[in-house]
Every structure is written in structure tokens, then in C-alpha cells.
Design brief:
The complex is a heterodimer of chains A (231) and B (95).
Chain A: E1 9-13, E2 16-19, H1 20-39, H2 51-70, H3 76-94, H4 108-137, H5 147-182, H6 187-218, H7 221-230
Antiparallel strand pairs in A: 1-2
Helix pairs in contact in A: 1-3, 2-3, 3-6, 4-5, 4-6, 5-6
Chain B: H1 3-43, H2 48-78, H3 81-94
The chains are: A mainly alpha (231), B mainly alpha (95).
Chain lengths: 231, 95
């Protein structure tokens, strides 16, 4: 049984083997980019919005309102970052229904890369909001004793992000594979439907957790409380 | 009992045990979380959307501990490093 699509080589270019993870990641990227470019090509006030543009607007507005609920007054860059994460993971999990397609999120490499990008983005957002000193001060927040624990929690949240997404997507594939051997006609379909649901929920959770981490890093601890008290 | 048979037996036993024990805690936790959310929705149906969103997120966070155990058992079963090592040792001893 295969636990990861990293092992399967899709095709070879100039002696470099392109495995399934990389190839299908490219397919997802191409789908997202080309679809967005084609839909927003005629983005002028005098052109009435067609149904595709409306669909895209509904998706983007929904992501925006979800982020707004978690962290009010967040910058637009959070929308770009978390929205991209959500769209990428959701599309690669939903493409599970296409025969022959292995979701790139079923490989630990992809999910580790996504979690790494979150780990790098959190300090970046924190530093741009409150400066290097202000961000580093959040590590010794209750007291200096908490410094090692804060650092450990930073790494453990990255590991848990990666393993959670990988385990969920991979377990769906493994269970469908096992059921294919036991009850081949009906139950794998049911498990795949369940896999679509878990895939969407996991994409949502990944994006939500990234937003929560970013908003906790960008929250100015002392000042915002005083401002709200003054009002 | 040869080394290979010993490693296989221990791996299978450990995989089963880790999934079994790893499922107990999250199952209890998810049951409690879902029950609390249902009570809250019954008391305040207006905030059902917020409650169910929070419920989904917390369920997935609770479930992730079970998923960790599952990943560990899958590694033990299908990607066991000691198995490959013992297999190579047995092959070099035989050949």
C-alpha cells in the first residue's frame, strides 16, 4: 500500500523525475490561476458581471467575512494569504473525485511546506504590525519563564498543522483502499463522499488556524485594550 | 522466533494498540463537545451558525490526536525503518 504519492513518478523531464505530488500541485496551481485570470479578464464597470464572476465574488466575500469575524481590522494581506491556502487545499482535496488524481495534500511534503509558510508568515505579519521589538516581546508575554514554552508552541503548532492535514487526507485514501479489497462496490463511494466533506473541513480549519495564529501575533497587546477602555 | 517475525509481531500489536487507545480519548472528547454544542444550539437557536462553525473547528482539533495515532500506526505498519534494516541484515546473512 502506498502512503504517499511522492514515490510514483508521473513523467521525466531532462532526466529529472516529476513525481505525482509535484505534477498534481502544478495542475491545481494552473487551474486556480487560469480560472481566476479568465474570469477577471473583463473587469470593467461597464461590463455586467456574468455568473462566473459572481461565483468568484461569492467565494472571496465569504472568505473575507470569515476572516473579519476572527480578526476585525485585519490587513488585506491576511485575506490573500489565508484565502490562497484555503483555495489551494480545498481544490486539491475536492479533485479527489477525478479518477487517477491523487490530492497533493496526501503527501507529507506538501502539508509540511504549507505549514512552513504559515510558520514564516506569522512572524512576518507580527513584525510588520508591531516592529521587531514589539513582536519579540510577545514571546516573554506573561513572564520570562514562559519563553521556552512559547518557542516550543510555535514549532508544535507547525508540526500539528502539517500532520493533521496529511493524516486526514491520507487516512481517507488508505481506508478507501482497504474497503476496496473488502466491499468493492458501495462502501468506497460512501467513504469518498465522506472524504470530500473532511477535505473541505480540513481546508477550512487550516485557513482558520493560520488566520488565528496571524491575528494573535498581530494583536497589539497593551494598546488596543486601553483604546477600547477609553471609548 | 527470528528477528523479522519478532519485529512484525510487535509492529502489528503496537499499531492496533495505538489506534485503539488513541481513539478512546478523542471519542469521549468529541462526544462531550457535540453534546455541549447541541445544548447550546437548543438554548440559543439564533447563534447556531457561529456555534456549528466553532464546533467543526474544535472537533477537527480534537480529532487530530486520533489522526496522529493513526499516522503513527500507518508508519509502523507500512514504513517501518527497523523492518527494512532487519530484512537487509537477513538477506546479507543468507546471501
Amino acid at each position: 500500500m502506498e502512503l504517499t504519492p511522492d514515490e510514483t513518478t508521473l513523467f521525466t523531464v531532462w532526466g529529472i523525475g516529476i513525481n505525482e505530488t509535484v505534477g498534481y500541485t502544478w495542475i491545481v496551481m494552473i487551474l486556480l490561476t487560469v480560472a481566476s485570470m479568465v474570469i477577471t479578464r473583463n473587469l470593467r464597470p461597464d461590463v455586467p458581471p456574468n455568473r462566473w464572476r459572481t461565483t468568484l465574488e461569492v467565494i472571496v466575500t465569504a472568505i473575507q467575512s470569515q476572516i473579519e469575524e476572527i480578526s476585525p481590522r485585519s490587513s488585506r494581506h491576511v485575506l490573500y494569504f489565508s484565502g490562497t491556502l484555503f483555495l489551494f487545499i480545498a481544490l486539491s482535496n475536492l479533485l479527489l473525485v477525478v479518477p487517477g488524481f491523487t490530492p497533493p495534500t496526501a503527501s507529507l511534503s506538501t502539508t509540511a511546506a504549507l505549514a512552513l509558510s504559515v510558520l514564516i508568515a506569522v512572524p512576518l505579519f507580527g513584525i510588520t504590525r508591531q516592529g521587531i521589538g514589539g513582536y519579540l516581546k510577545t514571546y516573554v508575554q506573561p513572564s520570562v519563564v514562559m519563553l521556552p514554552f512559547n518557542i516550543i508552541s510555535e514549532f508544535s503548532r507547525g508540526i500539528s498543522l502539517a500532520i493533521r492535514l496529511y493524516g486526514n487526507v491520507m487516512s481517507g485514501a488508505v481506508i478507501a483502499g482497504i474497503l476496496l479489497g473488502i466491499a468493492p462496490f458501495f462502501f468506497p463511494v460512501v467513504m469518498d463522499v465522506l472524504g470530500l466533506l473532511t477535505g473541505l473541513i480540513q481546508a477550512y480549519i487550516f485557513a482558520i488556524l493560520a488566520t488565528v495564529y496571524i491575528s494573535s501575533a498581530t494583536a497589539v497587546v497593551g494598546k488596543s485594550l486601553h483604546k477600547e477602555k477609553d471609548k | 522466533m527470528t528477528d523479522l517475525a519478532l519485529i512484525a509481531a510487535v509492529s502489528i500489536l503496537t499499531a492496533g494498540l495505538s489506534v485503539a487507545f488513541g481513539a478512546i480519548g478523542p471519542a469521549l472528547g468529541e462526544g462531550r463537545a457535540a453534546a455541549a454544542a447541541l445544548t447550546a444550539i437548543a438554548q440559543q437557536p439564533d447563534s447556531a451558525s457561529t456555534l456549528s462553525r466553532t464546533l467543526f473547528v474544535s472537533l477537527a482539533m480534537i480529532e487530530s490526536t486520533a489522526i496522529y495515532c493513526f499516522v503513527v500506526s500507518m508508519i509502523v505498519l507500512f514504513a517501518n525503518p527497523f523492518w527494512d534494516q532487519a530484512l537487509q541484515a537477513a538477506q546479507s546473512a543468507a546471501g
